[in-house]
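2024-03-11 09:14:02 DEBUG pipeline.ingest accepted 1 chain
2024-03-11 09:14:02 DEBUG pipeline.ingest length=205
2024-03-11 09:14:03 DEBUG pipeline.predict start
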Amino acid sequence: MRACLPMSPKQHRGEVTSDLLLDAALRVYADAGEQGLTVSAVTRASGVSLGSLYHHFGSIDGLVNALLTRWLGRLLGELADAVGNSHDARTGVRALVRAYLGFVQAHPDVSRLLHSSRADQVGMEQGRELRDVQEARMPPLTSWVLRHVERGEIAPLSPALLESLLLGPVVGVSRRWLTLGDVDLDEAARILPERIWRSISADGA
Protein backbone atom coordinates (compact mmCIF):
# COMPACT_ATOMS: atom_id res chain seq x y z
CA MET A 1 0.00 0.00 0.00
CA ARG A 2 1.35 3.40 -0.96
CA ALA A 3 2.02 5.85 1.82
CA CYS A 4 0.02 9.07 1.71
CA LEU A 5 1.97 11.85 0.08
CA PRO A 6 2.59 14.91 2.26
CA MET A 7 0.42 17.90 1.54
CA SER A 8 2.08 20.57 -0.58
CA PRO A 9 2.34 24.15 0.76
CA LYS A 10 -0.28 25.23 -1.79
CA GLN A 11 -2.66 22.47 -0.73
CA HIS A 12 -2.11 23.34 2.93
CA ARG A 13 -2.89 27.02 2.25
CA GLY A 14 -6.02 26.01 0.39
CA GLU A 15 -7.18 23.82 3.26
CA VAL A 16 -6.52 26.58 5.79
CA THR A 17 -8.46 29.07 3.65
CA SER A 18 -11.38 26.66 3.29
CA ASP A 19 -11.48 26.10 7.06
CA LEU A 20 -11.40 29.85 7.70
CA LEU A 21 -14.38 30.35 5.41
CA LEU A 22 -16.34 27.45 6.86
CA ASP A 23 -15.72 28.53 10.45
CA ALA A 24 -16.61 32.14 9.58
CA ALA A 25 -19.83 31.06 7.87
CA LEU A 26 -20.93 29.24 11.01
CA ARG A 27 -20.11 32.26 13.19
CA VAL A 28 -22.05 34.57 10.89
CA TYR A 29 -25.01 32.23 10.89
CA ALA A 30 -24.94 32.00 14.69
CA ASP A 31 -24.80 35.78 15.06
CA ALA A 32 -27.06 36.95 12.22
CA GLY A 33 -29.18 33.99 11.14
CA GLU A 34 -30.08 32.95 7.63
CA GLN A 35 -30.64 36.46 6.34
CA GLY A 36 -27.20 37.53 7.51
CA LEU A 37 -25.36 34.66 5.85
CA THR A 38 -24.06 36.59 2.84
CA VAL A 39 -20.84 36.63 0.85
CA SER A 40 -19.82 40.02 2.21
CA ALA A 41 -20.51 39.00 5.82
CA VAL A 42 -18.45 35.81 5.48
CA THR A 43 -15.51 37.51 3.80
CA ARG A 44 -15.46 40.20 6.50
CA ALA A 45 -15.63 37.64 9.30
CA SER A 46 -12.97 35.39 7.79
CA GLY A 47 -10.55 37.99 6.39
CA VAL A 48 -10.53 35.96 3.17
CA SER A 49 -11.00 37.65 -0.18
CA LEU A 50 -14.14 37.39 -2.27
CA GLY A 51 -12.12 35.77 -5.04
CA SER A 52 -10.89 33.04 -2.70
CA LEU A 53 -14.42 32.26 -1.56
CA TYR A 54 -15.56 31.82 -5.15
CA HIS A 55 -12.42 29.85 -5.98
CA HIS A 56 -12.97 27.33 -3.19
CA PHE A 57 -16.77 27.11 -3.09
CA GLY A 58 -18.17 28.78 -6.21
CA SER A 59 -20.94 30.65 -4.38
CA ILE A 60 -22.42 31.27 -0.96
CA ASP A 61 -24.68 28.25 -1.52
CA GLY A 62 -21.61 26.16 -2.29
CA LEU A 63 -20.07 27.31 0.97
CA VAL A 64 -23.22 26.50 2.94
CA ASN A 65 -23.42 23.13 1.18
CA ALA A 66 -19.84 22.35 2.25
CA LEU A 67 -20.61 23.42 5.83
CA LEU A 68 -23.70 21.22 5.91
CA THR A 69 -21.75 18.32 4.43
CA ARG A 70 -19.02 18.63 7.05
CA TRP A 71 -21.40 18.61 10.01
CA LEU A 72 -23.90 16.14 8.60
CA GLY A 73 -21.02 13.71 8.25
CA ARG A 74 -20.05 14.25 11.87
CA LEU A 75 -23.60 13.78 13.12
CA LEU A 76 -24.15 10.58 11.13
CA GLY A 77 -20.76 9.30 12.27
CA GLU A 78 -21.74 9.79 15.90
CA LEU A 79 -25.05 8.00 15.35
CA ALA A 80 -23.29 5.08 13.67
CA ASP A 81 -20.83 4.84 16.57
CA ALA A 82 -23.70 4.92 19.08
CA VAL A 83 -25.61 1.99 17.57
CA GLY A 84 -22.38 0.13 16.79
CA ASN A 85 -21.56 -0.06 20.49
CA SER A 86 -25.01 -1.34 21.49
CA HIS A 87 -25.69 -4.97 22.45
CA ASP A 88 -29.24 -5.29 21.13
CA ALA A 89 -31.81 -3.34 19.13
CA ARG A 90 -33.57 -1.81 22.11
CA THR A 91 -30.38 -0.39 23.65
CA GLY A 92 -29.33 0.72 20.17
CA VAL A 93 -32.45 2.84 19.81
CA ARG A 94 -31.76 4.40 23.20
CA ALA A 95 -28.15 5.11 22.22
CA LEU A 96 -29.15 6.62 18.88
CA VAL A 97 -31.74 8.96 20.42
CA ARG A 98 -29.37 10.10 23.14
CA ALA A 99 -26.51 10.59 20.66
CA TYR A 100 -28.69 12.72 18.37
CA LEU A 101 -30.08 14.89 21.14
CA GLY A 102 -26.64 15.13 22.75
CA PHE A 103 -25.22 16.39 19.46
CA VAL A 104 -27.98 19.03 19.22
CA GLN A 105 -27.30 20.23 22.76
CA ALA A 106 -23.54 20.30 22.24
CA HIS A 107 -23.72 22.07 18.86
CA PRO A 108 -26.85 24.28 18.87
CA ASP A 109 -25.66 26.67 16.15
CA VAL A 110 -24.66 23.83 13.84
CA SER A 111 -27.89 21.99 14.60
CA ARG A 112 -29.94 25.11 13.92
CA LEU A 113 -28.33 25.26 10.48
CA LEU A 114 -28.79 21.53 9.83
CA HIS A 115 -32.50 21.82 10.68
CA SER A 116 -33.07 25.17 8.95
CA SER A 117 -35.03 26.18 5.85
CA ARG A 118 -31.68 27.26 4.38
CA ALA A 119 -30.47 23.67 4.69
CA ASP A 120 -33.68 22.45 3.04
CA GLN A 121 -33.21 24.94 0.20
CA VAL A 122 -29.56 24.05 -0.38
CA GLY A 123 -30.42 20.38 -0.08
CA MET A 124 -32.97 20.71 -2.88
CA GLU A 125 -30.83 22.86 -5.14
CA GLN A 126 -27.43 21.27 -4.55
CA GLY A 127 -28.34 18.07 -2.82
CA ARG A 128 -26.12 15.52 -4.57
CA GLU A 129 -23.12 16.06 -2.31
CA LEU A 130 -25.28 15.99 0.80
CA ARG A 131 -26.97 12.80 -0.38
CA ASP A 132 -23.58 11.27 -1.13
CA VAL A 133 -22.37 12.03 2.39
CA GLN A 134 -25.56 10.71 3.94
CA GLU A 135 -25.48 7.54 1.86
CA ALA A 136 -21.80 7.02 2.67
CA ARG A 137 -22.48 7.34 6.40
CA MET A 138 -25.81 5.52 6.50
CA PRO A 139 -24.59 1.96 5.74
CA PRO A 140 -23.53 1.31 9.36
CA LEU A 141 -26.98 2.45 10.52
CA THR A 142 -28.74 0.58 7.73
CA SER A 143 -26.81 -2.63 8.30
CA TRP A 144 -27.46 -2.37 12.04
CA VAL A 145 -31.21 -2.10 11.40
CA LEU A 146 -31.22 -4.96 8.89
CA ARG A 147 -29.22 -7.17 11.24
CA HIS A 148 -31.83 -6.76 13.95
CA VAL A 149 -34.66 -7.25 11.46
CA GLU A 150 -33.07 -10.59 10.56
CA ARG A 151 -32.82 -11.45 14.25
CA GLY A 152 -36.52 -10.79 14.68
CA GLU A 153 -36.09 -7.81 17.02
CA ILE A 154 -37.13 -5.05 14.59
CA ALA A 155 -40.27 -5.25 12.43
CA PRO A 156 -39.61 -6.03 8.74
CA LEU A 157 -40.75 -2.66 7.43
CA SER A 158 -39.28 -0.77 4.48
CA PRO A 159 -35.94 0.97 5.17
CA ALA A 160 -37.51 4.37 4.48
CA LEU A 161 -40.31 3.77 6.97
CA LEU A 162 -37.93 2.46 9.61
CA GLU A 163 -35.70 5.51 9.15
CA SER A 164 -38.73 7.78 9.54
CA LEU A 165 -39.88 6.00 12.69
CA LEU A 166 -36.37 6.03 14.18
CA LEU A 167 -35.34 9.59 13.36
CA GLY A 168 -38.58 11.45 12.67
CA PRO A 169 -39.57 12.04 16.31
CA VAL A 170 -36.00 13.00 17.25
CA VAL A 171 -35.70 15.45 14.39
CA GLY A 172 -39.09 16.96 15.27
CA VAL A 173 -38.18 17.46 18.93
CA SER A 174 -34.82 18.91 17.96
CA ARG A 175 -36.40 21.43 15.58
CA ARG A 176 -38.85 22.51 18.27
CA TRP A 177 -36.09 22.93 20.86
CA LEU A 178 -33.96 24.91 18.43
CA THR A 179 -36.77 27.21 17.27
CA LEU A 180 -39.19 27.52 20.20
CA GLY A 181 -37.18 26.22 23.15
CA ASP A 182 -40.27 24.79 24.84
CA VAL A 183 -39.06 21.17 24.92
CA ASP A 184 -36.81 19.64 27.56
CA LEU A 185 -34.26 17.56 25.65
CA ASP A 186 -33.22 15.65 28.77
CA GLU A 187 -36.85 14.62 29.27
CA ALA A 188 -37.09 13.73 25.57
CA ALA A 189 -33.97 11.57 25.89
CA ARG A 190 -35.70 9.63 28.68
CA ILE A 191 -39.11 9.25 27.02
CA LEU A 192 -38.52 8.97 23.27
CA PRO A 193 -36.41 5.78 23.16
CA GLU A 194 -39.20 3.59 24.55
CA ARG A 195 -41.86 5.26 22.40
CA ILE A 196 -39.75 4.81 19.28
CA TRP A 197 -38.87 1.25 20.24
CA ARG A 198 -42.56 0.31 20.47
CA SER A 199 -43.10 1.66 16.95
CA ILE A 200 -40.38 -0.50 15.36
CA SER A 201 -40.08 -3.59 17.56
CA ALA A 202 -41.16 -6.85 15.96
CA ASP A 203 -43.61 -7.64 18.76
CA GLY A 204 -44.73 -4.06 19.40
CA ALA A 205 -43.64 -4.22 23.04
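2024-03-11 09:14:41 DEBUG pipeline.report The mean pLDDT is 86.
2024-03-11 09:14:41 DEBUG pipeline.predict end
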